[in-house]
Amino acid sequence: MSKLDNIPVRHQPTEAAGRKRTNPLAHVFDELVKFCQSRSMFMLHYCTGCGAIELPPAMTSRFDMERLGIQPMVTPRQADILLITGYVSIKTLKRIILTYEQMQSPKYVIGICSCTVNGGMYWQSYATAKVLKDYLPVDVYIAGCMPRPEAVISGMRELMSDIKSGRAQNWKRYYENYDHYLGNQQKLFGEDWQTPTDIIAEARHYGLMTDRTLGEHTALLEKHQRPLEALEMRLSAREKQKT
Amino acid sequence: MSKDLNIWLDDLLGDIENIQFKRKSSRRVRVDVGSEALPALLELLQGRASYVHLSAISCVDWIEDEEFELVYHVWSYETRSLVSAHTRIPREPGVYLSIYDLYQPAAFFERDIHEMFGVFFEGSPDMEKFILTEWDGPPPMRKEFDSEAFVNQHFEWEQYHPQWLKDLEEEGGGVTTRPEDIRL
Amino acid sequence: MTPLDQLLLLSALTVVVPLFTGNRRITGPLATLLYTGQGLLLLRMAGLGYGSETPVSSAVSLQVLGLELHWRFDALSWFFALITIGAGLLSSWFASGEWAQRYRDSGSSLRLFHAALALNVFTMLVLLASGELLSLFIGWELVSWASFLMMSLGSNTALRYAMRYVTYAFAGAMAVLMGLVLVYTRTGSFEFQAFRDAVPSMDADTVWLLFGLFAAGFGVKMALLPFHLWQAKAYAETPGPGAAFLGAISSRMGLFAMIVVLVQIIGVARLVELPVPFTFLSGRDLLAWVAVFTIIFPTFTALRQHDARRLLAWHGIGQGGYMLLGILIADDLGSAGGLMHVFNHATYQAVLFMSVTAVIHRTGTSDLNKLGGLVARMPLSFLAMLIGIIGLAGLPPMNGFVSKWLVYRALILEGSPLLFLGAVIGTLGTILSVYKLIHNTFLGQLRLEHVDIEEAPSSMLWPMMILSTVVFVTGYFPGLVLDWIASVQAAVGLPVLAHHLGGVHIDKGGLDMIWVVSVLLAGFGVGALVFLSGNRSKRVHQLDNYAGGHFLTADTRYQYSDNFYPGLMHLIGPWYRKSFRWLEGGFVSTVDTVSQLMQGLYRHTHPAFYLLAVVVFALSWVMGGD
Amino acid sequence: MNLSELLIELLLMPLVAFVIGLGMVLMMRKIAARLGRRIGPPLLQPIYDIIKLYGKRTQISHGLIHEIGIIMAVGGYVAAETLLPVPGMNGLADKGGVITLAYVMMIPSLGMALGVGQCANPNGSIGISRALTAMLAYDIPFILVIFGAAYVYGTTNLADIIAIQQQQGVSGWGLMQMPLLALAGMLALPAVMGKQPFEIYIAPAEIATGPMVEMSGKFMGGLFVMQCFQLYTAGVLYTTLFLGGGAYWITFLPKIYAVVAIPMAAAMLFPRYRTEDVIRLMWKWPVLVGLMGLAVAMK
Question: Does A234 touch chain C (CB under 8 A)?
Fold first, then answer.
C-alpha cells in the first residue's frame, strides 16, 4: 500500500454492471428499492470493541433508532450494516472479515471510534490493526473515543442519505479489488489465510469481476484453498469432480 | 475476631528467618521471601492461616537487575486480608516452580505470565498460547520488546499524507513536535 | 376352478418356485412376475371391490369330523388382498436387485427369504378367504407361523425377538380357540351365519367373554396396547423388504379378523349395549380407549428411539390404533376413515421402511446419530421419505390426511372430545418424531465418510417411487379408495359412505381434497413466484455457515441429532416408567413360578394321573357350558 | 358462485390477508415500542423491510430443499387464507372445514423446518425442535377449542359458523355462548402466533434467531411475509369462531386487530418461557378451562 494511487478512492456511482437497464420504469423501481434500503437497515448485533457500549442507548427509549427503521439483527446473513466499534485487535479482525464476507450485499461498514480510523490510542500496540480501510471497504467513519449516541445516529443518517443517493456502493469494491484486500489480510495473518466464503466464485456469480479481482495474492490463495463448491444434489458419484 | 488473627499472623511470620515482613494496613501484608521458600510459605498460609484464595500472580520485569519479580496475592475470607508474597527469580533461564498443586487457578495465571513474559513454570498443566493466539513474536511484555518499533516496522499506518496536510505543513502549521516524541 | 382357486393356486406356486430357483439372481424378478400374476387374477374379481359382484366362493371344500370347511372372497377380503398382494409385489421387487446380491453375499439365503415372503402372502390370502370360523382359525395360525418364519431370517437377535412374537401369537391363538369352542358349544356349528343368529339370544356375560377372548386374541397380532411389546423389535430386525411388507400389512390381519368377528357377526350395536360395571363406559368405549392409548403410547415411545427402523416400527403400532378407533365409531364416516387408514398406512409405511433400507444399503447404519445430510447424495430416497412422513403425519397433500380427517369428523359428529383429544395428541407426537427421522437422516451436516456415496440402486428406487405416487394420487383423489371402502362397508353391514372423487360431501362441513390440494399447489406456485421475484441466490458450501465467528472445519461434527426434543423430554421424561415392560415381566415371572411348581409336582408323583385329571377338568369345564 | 368469481376470490383473499397482516406486524412493533416508551417504527416500516429484503443483490442458499422450504412456508399460508372466510368472500370454506384449516396451517411450519434442516446449522435445528415442541404444546388447547366450537355449532364449515352466529346478533357470538372456550382460545392465542413470551424458538441471543439463522435476502423476506400471514390467520380464526366473524369490513377489522392486540400487549411484559414451561403452561390452564368449557357446552 506504499504507492498513493493504489489507495481506492470513493467509488463513483457507476450503473450496476450486472443488469442492462432499458425502460425508464426500471429507474422508478430502482429508486423505490434504494429508498426502502435506506429506510430499513438491519444492524448486526456484534460488538467488536469498546465502542459498542454506545449502541444500546441509541436503540432504547431516549434515542430510539427504530424510528429510522434500524433494527439489531443477530446473524450476518440477515444484517446490512456491520458496526466496527473500538480497537480492532488482530484476533477480532479475523472474525470481522469472516462476518463481513458472510453478510449479503448491499452491505455497509461503519467504523465507529477513532481506533478504526488510524489506530487511535492503541496505535503503539502490537496486537491491533491500525487502518481498517486496508482490510475491508468502509462507508462511514464516526470519530470520537466512543462517540455519543447522537453522533452514532448522525453517522447512520449520513449513511442513509448516501444509500438514498446511490453513493454507498463501497461493497462492490471488495469484489472488484479483492486482490488488494486479500494482500493486506495475508500480510497480517500469514500466507495460509482463508475464509470459508468463496469470494471469487461469488464475484463471478454476480458479475462483479474486474481485472483487479484476481492477482498474485489470490493465486497464493488458490494454491492451498480447501474445496468450497456447494454440495450439489447428484444421483451418482460417476462423474467425479476434480478433487 | 480478625484483630487477634492479625496479631497471631504477624508473630507467626515474624519468627521465620530471612523473610522481610511488612504490614501495610489491617488488611494488607507484604512479605518478601526467597524464591525457593515461596511454595512452603504459600502452603503454610493456605493450610494454617486460611488464605485459601489465590487472586492473582503478577510479574514485574526488572531489566536493570536482570530479574523477574513474581508477586503471589493470596486472600483470606476469614480475616478478610490480603498477603502479597514477593520473590525474585533470575531473568535469564526464567524458569520457576508451579504452585498448581496448591491453587488450581494458578494454571491460568502462570500460562498468562509464560505468554507475556516467557517465564516457564515447571509442573504447570498447560503452557501453550493463551490469549495471543495469532502472535508468534517474542513475549510482548518484556521490557526489551519495543512495541512502537514493531508497529512502525510491520504496519504502514502513517503514510496517510493527503494534500491538505502537506499544504498545512508548508505554511509551518500543524504539530511541531509529534506527540510520540514528547517525553515527560 | 373359480377365480379364487386360481389365485390361491398361483400363490402356492409362488411359494414353491423360489425353493427351486434358490439363491440365483433370477429368484427376485421371477417372484415379482408371479406376484403380478396374482394381482391380475385378483383384478379379475374386481367386481367385488366395486360392489357389483356376489362373494366368489372356492370350489374346494373339506369335510372334517362332520364340520364343513369352505373358502370364499367378499369385498372385505378383496380389499385386504389387494393391499397384501400390492405390498408383496413391491417388497419382492425391492428385494430383487442389488439388495439381493448384498443379502446373499452377507451369507443369508435368498431362497428362504423369497419363500418366506411368498408364504406370508399365500397364508394371508387363505386367511382372507376363510368362509367360517374354523378356516379363519386355520388361516390365523398359518399367518402367525409365516410371519415367524419371516422375522427369524435376520440375525440371532432377530430370532430372539421372533421367539418372543411366537409366544405372544400362541397365547393369542389359544384365546381365539377358546372363543371358537365357546361358540361351538352355543351354536353347534362354526358358520358365520349360525353365530350371527345366535348372538341376540346370548346373555351379556357370554358376549362379554366372547368379546374379551376375540379382542385379546386378534389384538395380539394387531399389537393393541397390553400386547404391543413384541412388534417394534421384531419388525425392526426383519431384513429390509421383509420389514416393509410386515410393517405395511401383517398386523392388519388382526384388524381383518376383528372386523369379521366383532363388526360383521357380533355387531358394534351389540357391543354398545355391553355395560362395563360401575362405569359409564360400554364395551365399545373400552376398546376405543384401548385404541386411543395404542395411538398415544407407542407414538411417544417412537419419539425417543434413535434407530430409524425401531422408530418406524413403533409408529406402525401407533397407527393401528387409528384404524380400530375408526371402525369402532361404526358410522359411515368413522368406519370409512378406519378402513381407508389401513390402505394409507400400508402405502406410506412401506415407503418409509424401504427408504430407511436404502439408507442402510448405502451407509451401513440406521442409527440416527451416525447419519445426516444425505439429501445431497440420495435425493430420490429423500423425496420418498418426505412423501412418506407427510403421509404418516397426516398432512393435507397426502392420503394419510383424508383417513384421519374422516376419523376426526366422525368423532366430532359423535361428540366424544376426549377420544378426539387423544387421537390429536397421537398426530402431534407423530409430526414431532417424523421430523426427527428425516432431519437426522437426510438434513443437516453431511459427514465426511458419506461425501461420495451414491443414490440407491434403481431396483430399490422404482418401488419407492411407485408407492410415493400412490400416496400422493390417493391423497389428491381419495374417491379411488373410497369406492372400494363403500363396497366393503356394504359387505360388512356398516352404513355406506356417500362420497365423490374428491372426498365426502356433508352439508355440515365436508372435505373436497381436489380443491384443497389444488389450492395448496397453487399456493406453492404463488410462493415460488414471490420467491423468484428476488435476485439470484448463490449455493454455498456446507461449512460457509454462521457459527458465532468460529471457523467451521469438516472434521468437527456439529449436527444436532441426539436428544432431539430436550424440552419435551425434560417434562414427560419421568412419565416413561416402562410400566408395560414391568407388567410383562411380572406376568412372565408368575407363569414361570407356577410352571416350576407344577413341574416339581408333576415329575415326582404319578405324572400320568395328574395329566389325566387336568384334561378331564378342562374338558368338563368347556363342555359343561350352560 | 360461478367459477370466475371463485377464482377472483382465491386471488384476492391472500392479498387482503397480506395487507392486514402488515398492519398487524406494525401494530405489534408499535405496541412493543410504546411499552418501552419509545416512538416505534414509522407507518410503512414492514413494507420497507420486505421490499429491502427482496431487493438484496446477493443471497446465499444451502440447496434446493432450502429454497423449497421457503416456497412452502409462503405458499402454505397463501392456501390457508383461502379457507378463511372474510366479509363478502367465502373462498373454499365449504370445501375444507376448520380441521383442514388447522392442518393446512401446519404445512408452512413443516416447510420451514425442512428448509432450515438443510442449512446444516445447529442453531436452526435447535430452533426447529423447540418450534415443533411449542406446536405440540399449543395445539392441544387449540384443537380442544376447535372441537368445542365445531360440536356446539354442529358444523365444521366456517361460513356456516359465521351465519349461525350472526342470526342472533351479538348474543349469538361464540363468546356469549361458550365464554370458557373463548377464554381458553385467548389463553392459547399468543402461543399460536408464536410471539413474545412463547418465542423461545427465536431466542436471538441464545440460538441466533433459531430457524432464521441462515436466511438472507429473499429467504428472510419470505419469512417476514409468513409472519404477516401467521398473525392474520390466528386473529381471523379466533374472530370467526368466537366473535361472530365479519358481516361488514368496518366491524370485522376492529375485531381482528383487537383480538391480535390483546395477547400482544400482555405478551411484551413477560420474559421468555423455557420450552418445558411453555408445555406445562399450555397443558395446564388453557386445557383446564377448555375442558370445563366443553363440559358446559356439551351437557
Answer: yes
